[in-house]
Amino acid sequence: MESLQVLMPERQFKLLMDLLRGYAELGGGRIEVKLDAEERELFTSAVQRELLVLLGLLGALVPGHEDRADGVVADLGDGERAKGVMSLVPPEVASDPARLRDMRDRLDAAEGRRASDRATVEGIAEVSGMAGTEEN
Predict the structure, then answer these.
(1) How many angstroms separate the CA atoms of 52 and 95, rounded?
(2) CB 3.0 to 4.6 Å from 71: which of 24, 77, 79, 88, for a disulfide?
(3) 87 lies in which domain range?
(4) Are 106 and 57 within one domain?
(5) Ranges of Basic and acidic residues compositional bias (predicted)?
């Protein structure tokens, strides 16, 4: 962590630590993070890569998942909906373009389902007179 702190701009390091703490406090798993404009600018692909590596190291602390520390950050590319997709994968997956494409396609399909679900919920909220009540 000290190396990252020295190498990264202070605001980027703070964002990285805030995201890592939030993830740990929520107990891991899939999370969705809303970033403001400044945070989106700070959340570069380099910061995303470091976050994935750190999450892999955290995951390796769970008994039976020690191999997660060996993960490699793979660029999965752009899908129809999901853009700039990256994932921490085992080394053998990182070297297999077909498996990476399959991962990207599955993540892209999941993003499509989430977008559809959000649109449905927003539509229900609108016709129920509840639109615009969500906190950001």
Answers:
(1) 18
(2) 88
(3) 71-127
(4) no
(5) 110-120
